[in-house]
Amino acid sequence: MATPSTTPQATSHDELQRAAREHLLLHFTKQAAAYGTAPPAADAAPRDELLVLDRGEGPYVFDTTGKRHIDALSSLYCSQIGYSYGEEFSAAIGQQLATLPFNTNWNTAHPASIRLAEALAQRAPGDLDHVFFTNGGSEAVESMWKIALEYFRSVGQPDRRKAIARKDAYHGVTLGALSFTGVPGYKDGFGTPPIDVTHVANTNAFRDPDGDDEAAFCARLLQEVRDAIAAAGADEVAVLIAEPVQNAGGCIVPPTGYWKGLREICDEHGILLVADAVICGFGRMGNWLGIEHEDVVPDMVTTAKGITSAYVPGGAVFVSDRIAQGLFDPSLVLRHGITFGGHPVMAAAALKNIEIFERDGVLENVRALEPHLQAAMESLLDLPIVGDVRGKGFFWAVELVKDAENTRFDQAERDDLLRGFLPHAMREAGIVARADDRGDSVLQIAPPLISDAALLDEIVATLRTVLSAAGEHMGLAS
Ligand SMILES: Cc1ncc(COP(=O)(O)O)c(C=O)c1O
Asked: Residue 278 Cα, ligand 1 centroid: separation in angstroms?
């Protein structure tokens, strides 16, 4: 074996492919397929090399062959402002590193996290005035849960230890957060989840018998929530958690009145309402916490991803005054902490992110262009493979179907379409989007929030080309 060196060994495209295959374990990936170490099935689409991205510029990323791709997924819903603000972030981070590279928020604090908490509270809706920092979304979800339990301990309700979440929803996969996640395949083999969670229906109206009657659909969904609470024991439920627009299943928007209904049900039973805005927050819906458009103030909001536009990792739980008051009980210690939660570098970056959002009108851009993007996405409904178009803000999905009756693709067809054909076609077309079947078969986009109308049109035109070819590939008449 070669002597280890501190100088990077892998520089060329081929060397990076080799070194990745030999050393880098990929997240949520079939390693054998990604690294080409398993023989492809006889009928499989051509297998691409691992996509290695080494540069970004505006809304574009460039791979190690020099090919440009439109990042129509904002690097997994994170790169809200794209890739051209590095120097500004470097200056802010550099200044922080030169002043105080690190201190915790355990019993002490530092100006950057204090300023960030204040800036976030000023922008959060209602009385979400308190912030607990984390390094990402799963930590935010688990922190939310422990804050909820500590709150209930402080108000003399220690028996509230159950939760309600929704089917197919993704709230993270660390073992605590995995309890809330409602994607069945992610849980098998990892033991009984530590938190007792009942999963109720999500709000996907497509194919639902009541889907065309929004009021009836909403009433039925809320009744199911009530029934689930009654079955769990209303005095034992601590938290109801839901995404404002659910990602898994493909940008599932709620019917009008759903969130107000959730708020009422939670208030009636003393349950904490939590919006998981890890994806929806920080501009994706054209507002700060991804929930303001529902005109409902949750008791807590979990965030991550866009909080720094991913220039560095970060996350946060927003906590209402009422819940925080419980934590201020003189006898209570908040028995939860994360060494790097609210790291000064993260705080400096998140403050810079807020400054850029406000200076460059990022939220305004999303709000102004949402109708344009919606119309463009809905124009795809003329393609035979597109059964439904749904979404909000800069967060949209098309559901892919087999025929005019909206028949679902079977497992073998989904493997071919979503794991073979579409990733390859998108790679060729120079676009990053997400083909997914947690729930139904969807192709999803979440463009950088700095995208202009011309770029959004280019994204949708590229989807049209790719989806037309996909329809032909799957034998649908064009
Ligand atoms: C809604 C939601 N919650 C929680 C998480 C977990 O976040 P992380 O991957 O940062 O742990 C995710 C990740 O995508 C998410 O989409």
From this structure: 6
- pLDDT tens digits, residue range 15-49? 999 999 999 999 999 999 899 887 666 555 557 89
CB 416 within 8 A of CB 424: no
Contact 49, 253 (CB under 8 A): no
pLDDT of residue 11: 87
Q: Which residues of the chain have pLDDT under 50?
A: 1
Å from CA of 141 to ligand 1 middle: 8
> Of how many residues is the chain composed?
478
C-alpha torsion angle, residues 88, 90, 92, 96 (rounded to 10): 180
In the chain, what are the domains?
13-71+362-473 (3.90.1150.10), 86-359 (3.40.640.10)
**Within a 10 A sphere around the Cβ of 465, how many other Cβ atoms?**
14
3-state secondary structure (DSSP) of residue 159 = coil
* Residue ID of nearest Cα to ligand 1 atom 14: 172
Q: Is the shortest distance between the CB of 136 and ligand 1 below 6 Å?
A: yes
In angstroms, the CA 180 to CA 245 distance is 16
Dihedral angle sign, alpha carbons of residues 329, 299, 447, 50: positive
Contacts of 364 (CB under 8 A, 6+ apart): none
Q: Give the amino acid at 447.
A: P
What's the whole-model pTM score? Answer: 0.97
Residue 156: helix, strand or coil by DSSP?
coil
Q: Are strands 68-71 and 431-432 parallel, antiparallel or unpaired?
A: parallel
Mutate to test the pocket of ligand 1, among 246, 252, 279, 300 (most ligand atoms within 8 A of CB): 279
Per-residue model confidence (pLDDT) at position 235: 98
CA–CA dist 229, 402 (Å, integer):
37
What pLDDT, on a 0 to 100 scale, did the predictor assign at position 478? 61
Tokens 């959060």 label which residue? 124
Within 8 A by CB and 6+ apart from 360, the residues are 81, 450
Q: Which atom of ligand 1 is nearest to the CA of 304?
A: 10
Query: What's the pLDDT score for residue 4?
Result: 61
On whether the CB atoms of residues 201 and 167 are closer than 8 A, the answer is yes
Q: How far apart are the C-alpha atoms of 298 and 318, rounded to whole Å?
A: 9
Report residue 59 as tokens: 């809304």
The protein residue with its alpha carbon nearest to ligand 1, atom 3, reads 171
- What pLDDT is recorded for position 40? 64
Interatomic CA distance for residues 122 and 354, integer angstroms: 11
Looking at the DSSP assignment, which residues form a beta bridge with residue 69?
61
The rounded Å distance from CA 191 to ligand 1 centre is 21
What DSSP line would sit under 1-69, residue for residue?
A: -PPP-SS----SHHHHHHHHHHHPPPTTS-HHHHTT-SPPPTTPPPPPPP--EEEEETTEEEETT--EE
Judge contact between 450 and 366, C-beta under 8 A: no
Question: What pLDDT is recorded for position 33?
Answer: 87
